[in-house]
Amino acid sequence: MTGLNLSEWALKHRSLVVYVMMVAVITGALAYFRLGRNEDPSFIIKTMVVQAAWPGATAEETMKQVTERLERQLQQTPHLDFLRSSTRAGLVTIFVNLEGSANARQVSDAWYEVRKSVGDMRHTLPSGVIGPGFNDDFGDTFGIVYGFTSDGFTQRELRDRVEDIRSRLLRIPDVSKIELMGAQDEVIFVEFPKQELATLGIDRTALLAALQAQNIVHPAGMIQTSKESISVRVSGSFQSEQDIAAVNFVAGGRTIRLSDIAQVRRGYVDPPQPMFRVNGQPAIGLAIAMRDGGDILALGRNIKKVMEQITADLPIGIEPSLVADQAVVVEGAIGEFMTSLLQAIAIIMVVSFISLGIRPGLIIALAIPLTLAIVFPIMEMARIDMQRISLGALIIALALLVDDAMTTTDATLTRLAQGDSKVDAATFAYRSHAFAMLAGTLVTIAGFIPVGFAASSAGEYTFSLFAVVAIALLVSWFVAVIFTPLLGVLILVPPKQKNSAEPGRIFRLYRSCLTLAMRAKWLTIAVSLALFVASVLALPLIPQQFFPSSDRPELLVDLSLPQNASIFASEAAAKRLDAALAGDPDVHHWSTNVGRGAIRFYLPLNAELPNDFFTQAVVVAKDVAARERLHVKLERLLAEEFPAAVASVSPLGLGPPVGWPLQYRVSGPDVEQVREFALKVGQILASDPRTKSINFDWMEPARELRIRVDQDEARRLGLSSQAISTVLNTVISGAIVTQVRDDVYLVDVVARAVDEQRISLSNLRTLQVPLPGGRTVSLSQFATFEFQQQNPLIWRRDRVPTLTVRADINGGSLPNSVVDALSPAIERLRKTLPAFYEVVVGGTVEESRRSQASVLAVVPMMLFVMFTVLMVQLQSFPRLLMVASVAPLGMIGVVAALLLSGRPMGFVTILGVLALLGMICKNAVILIGQIDAERAQGKSPWEAAVDASSSRFRPIMLTAVSTVLGMIPIAPTVFWGPMAVAIMGGLLVATVLTLVLLPTMYVACFGEKERAGAPAASPS
Hints:
The protein is of the alpha+beta class and about 1000 residues long. It has 34 helices and 30 strands. The strands form seven sheets. Strands 1, 2, 3, 4, 20, 21, 28, 29 and 30 form a nine-stranded antiparallel sheet that branches. Strands 5, 6, 13, 14, 15, 16, 17, 18 and 19 form a nine-stranded antiparallel sheet that branches. Strands 12-7-24-23 form a four-stranded mixed sheet.
């Protein structure tokens, strides 16, 4: 090795290196406490919501005139993946989904382009369209949610208090935004009896116009004198409902007070806005979002402190409840992972002390905090928080980062045993192993490249795994070549015996196996290849999974009534669910969202659109065991008590949100045909006993009352369809006349008929429609009434009507297994479909395949980097081929470990298997380098292979055992467990094969036979 010897430089500048070590430890400790804390890594929800309203239009008209025009424009969005739209009568919601490969800058540019392009075409939309509006904060996470209930206070009084609390909380550092949930806007109703107006001959339209004119805000001018400016204000604006009731107007030559002919009262919007309930009580919620890069633990402490002060000032009767507290979850998760990290450190230290001795073990023990102390500031600069992925990555990296330190320490001990001075022994490792260790480190990092560069949401979610492991491994190499030699000089002492002791039993067994394998080299290679082929053939036996469920105690309970159900029906269902939860001993607390899904209190949550027919409850069990019991009870309850609802119970998921586990999209140009084919798909799903709760995202039609106007008769009477619709809307739903400016609120004044006259069909037939000139006529004189059916909701995907068939699966089954079993039947159905109709797998399976494809797309780059590093180090095609041949053999151990443990092959496990390739290559590179070094001393290939394998046996086995044992703390975890088991099994088997198969392949490649009477190698 030529060039600068970093170990030698470190020994010549001991004081400087010691100073750097001290600074690193202090800086690392400070950085650790400054690092952000969060539950999950932040990833961009690459979805924008575009909404527009066209009041009065049917669903069909809205789809053709608004949805279609908007979608045509939005299809030109750069980096677009797909469009998904929901169209209801008079309302369209379009989800613009970008490709997983889009980065933050491209996402921002795309959203700007959406706003600009839609703004340019807004004039082409029908007159009367409101919007479109845009929401690109769809992925905001509101990790802390409070609910406020009241006893003895009006909704308005409670809201005033909550608004004040919101203002105070917004001043807390790290709070980015706060959303109000369940608040009902106040309305002043002016309710007219229809018959009385007709009897008095009052023109309702003129009356409403008079109210608007009196309440209008209009400048009255400004008087300018030589000394001052005086504003002129005209009185008359309404300050309260009493002002409206006191309005006088002239009708038929008489002055009439409004309160004499109409009921004027203050109430709340009717029908209600989405409602929020806490533990069965109506409530107003405050959902608090943290700014990017914030510390959720610090935020939680600050909010708790302020809320204690606020609660002390609240009047008796208003009670705050902590509905969701991500800070507590994160604190518990970080505490568990720190415990796992300390356990892993302790395990590795014990292995080091037992295998190497007290002094060498102490060097390894010191290398761990030194490496972590440097890693933490780099994480802080790279804005990598302490969260689920980065904490797991630290434990995985911990099991790998001691590798170089062990290699350096073992080499130093070997040279000390041979009589070298401390300085020569400490610098020998750099001369003989530094570049092989660096190549191995780079190859190991290359194994994680698919994690870091997978262009998908799942890849973005797990990116910090690559980043943290790469940082830790590079730092560990520098620690091994700079700090470890210095620690070796200061701590190590020459062994009392210069010659090694009698070989141990394990070493003798290994030596015997190696010799037998090398003698029967072709049999050894054939057996290894056969085991590899068997492991590949056994892969389908391993259950497939995308991401596992979370180990949080929450359960999501979804209730979907028929899609024409009112929010009052949803509220009644929510109250029945609340009553069932109230006495359950496994329930800690719960919150219910009526008319909408839960706010995104958890980043991977699959957020639902507001819909009157939808209710979602978040039930927090007392622990995970209670959650499982509660899951079974709730499924039974929903099946028995809510047979008409589409209900599901599920724990929180991990990874990107996907919704129902089983989904099939049926799409085509004709809605009726799509519905027919979707029913057939539903029958196929029902044929599998593992499926349950089969449902459709839209299917059932709804009733519509069609009023057919005799246009000739209406024109003869001086009426138009617009005038008739206006009268009907005012009577039935109510029309906003004006607004009362009440403090910080704007309170709509709504004119409508009294309750008993608004919801009766018979009253509608006798409705008196005002004619020009003051007369009235019954609606039934020029109109007929009939009921028709319409689609209350139509989903489209990329402008094609798309009906999604959804299902849940029984416990113990995995979506991939069910989809594989259903594939033949689905394929037979596909062959019967006409042109332009298709059935596509969606949900968990689709997202898993997309994510795996994004990983596999990066594998060529991973292999290129690996082969390049290996070729630079080995500079030999035969040696490169040997290393490349050994690397995949880890699959033997991976498959065996997963099958024996029953763990699934998930997305994170696949990443671990790819990373395993780099770990195996690292050992192979160092071993081949040692064989070549032995040959450089004049030994034959056989002797060199035996001696090099014998000398590398201890450090390679030590690092492998340390890695395997170091992963024990995370092996039981839900998220990291399958990956840890796969790496443990794969690395253990691959290490043994590396120590046996690689020397055998080397001898087979270079054609050297065993020499008679060859000396036995010493176990150094």
